[in-house]
Every structure is written in C-alpha cells, then in structure tokens.
Design brief:
The protein is mainly α. Helix content is 82%, strand content 0%.
Length: 220
Amino acid sequence: MLMIILTAACIVLAGAFILQEKQENYVPAVILKGAASLCFVLLGALNAPKGNPAAAKIVIGLLLGMIADVLLNLRFVVKNGKPVFLVGILVFLAGHIMYLLAVFPMVRSEWIVLIAAAVLTALLMKWIFSKITAEKAFKIFGIVYIGAIVLLNCSAISNLITAPGAFTAVFAIGAVLFLVSDIVLILNTFGPKSEFRLRVTNLSLYYAGQILIAFSLFLL
C-alpha cells in the first residue's frame, strides 16, 4: 500500500510542479519538484534489500537524482543560474555512475557492452549535435554525460538478455526512459526553440524512469 501511495504522490506532485513551472511560479515549482523526487527516493529506500551493495548504490543514485532535480530548477530562482544548472548536471552524472556501478558488475561480456556503448554514443551525439547549438564546453560535457547513460543502458539491456528476470527487465525499462528523457531535455534546452510540450514529455519520461528504477529494488 505504501508503494502505491508514494508512486501516486510522486505523479501528483510532479504534475503540480509542471503546472507551477508553466505559470513561472519558480519557488513553489522547486519545492514541488523536490517533494516529487523525494517520493521516488523513499520508494527505492523502502524497497531496497538490506545488505545488498547494488541496492545501496541504486538508492544513492536516486538520492543524487533528487538533489540534481532541485538544482536544475534553482537556475530559475537564483540570479546567475548557469553555474547551478551545470552543478545539477554534474550531480545527475554522479547518479548515473552510481546506477552503473550497481549493474555493470552483473555484465557477462564487458568488452561487447563497452564497444556497443562507444559506437551508440558516437552516433547519438552526432545526431544531437546536428539538432542543437551549444558552447564547446557544453558539447564536451554532453559527450561524457550521454556516454555514461548510454553505457548504463547497454549494461542494463545486456543483463536483461543474459539474465532475464523481473529486476533486470524493470531496471532496463527505467534506464531507457531516463535516456530518452535526457535526450528530449537536451533538444529542448539547446535546440532552436524551447517548447512546453517537450518539457512535459521530458519530465513524464524522467519520473516514470526513476519510479521504475526505484521499484526494481523490490524485485532484486
């Protein structure tokens, strides 16, 4: 029952946050976004099996995601928001790395996964760069960031193929949704025009991905 309550609360709070952001009420938007993210952190922490190192890393990743969520929206509140935005992206990257540390040890063919991730990252970044305009520093960091989450996805999908099960399936779906949400975020942030519908798509995919990653701990 608590899992259902936390999931529902996350969805409702995320919806309220999106509405507040659309109305440019940025302070309540930050609070609502942090509260929505706290729900998936609690969902993961309560589901995590005790004494499991992989589960502990995933919970830390969820916590870092919550911190990054707040930082990304603080850029609309503070006077000079660009450094806050960059720190938020760095914290998100740290969260991806924690997820990766949790699932990469389960990979059976490390080199195949690494090569696949490198090729897919190169192809994906080539396509993204054709769609956006960004400073060189953002592009370099974007390669590292997308590379990390693509490696996470390749690892998760590899685990699903070699060790099919409830945990590997739910985690892999969550990771894919997270990747797609990040791609939409990049296109909407650095593309020719920011659109609210893309913002809604980005956030919907993001919260769905984090909820699934949190819920996967119940199946570990």
